[in-house]
């Protein structure tokens, strides 16, 4: 409990790859003996099957028909559907440790995972690992498959990148660390080409990064970086924040989910050579659109001058803490 491996076993149990209409059972025993390839074209429905058994086509229909009690929900992943269908056509391919070879994408969201354990190394073909909305505070890179291209750790409690950067997957193209507990400037040294030579997309949004100059100096070494998300960090409050980044990272295509067009890059040209403009100051504009549960001041304007009615005065104090 609490590990990625344990969550994966629960995921398999939920998929029911060994249960009807999947798996090897009395409902398809003779079909299994034929050892048909899961990628072969389905045989004709006219094939005779022993009483009590179902054809592979009939079993697949139970998985695909949205009205079937065995159908997956509409929002399930393509991999979920693929595994279920392989479990009908060739369950031996998913038996025992073979299941780990069939998984290229692993999504475990909001399952209380606290540990990225070494059991992940059994996934020798894994390319995408999504572990968002869990309770992970530390990641040991030695436990990550070297084949990873996407690693998503948003909405966790990661506060230190040292363990992740000890031996990171060399082919990683996207690293998602939004909504974590990263604080600068100690973490910025881990965001260089020495650790992420093929990184194309980086999400550091909604952390506590404050050193814009230091971060840019490290990110500038990532020659393949095209997508960067930094919104939600204190450094994003600096007045020249976007212009300084656009001019400092000329290969960047998208910043904070907004495309960088040539005219914008032209507008901010030369700003990277003026680091003094990135002073540690911020301008915050707060607008209050509506307040509920307060007395309507118009009701007290009906009192006539000289009225003997009591005069009631209300005052309110709004406090902002930074």
From TrEMBL:
<keyword id="KW-0677">Repeat</keyword>
<dbReference type="InterPro" id="IPR001611">
    <property type="entry name" value="Leu-rich_rpt"/>
</dbReference>
<dbReference type="GO" id="GO:0005737">
    <property type="term" value="C:cytoplasm"/>
</dbReference>
<keyword id="KW-0433">Leucine-rich repeat</keyword>
<protein>
    <submittedName>
        <fullName>LRC43 protein</fullName>
    </submittedName>
</protein>
<dbReference type="InterPro" id="IPR032675">
    <property type="entry name" value="LRR_dom_sf"/>
</dbReference>
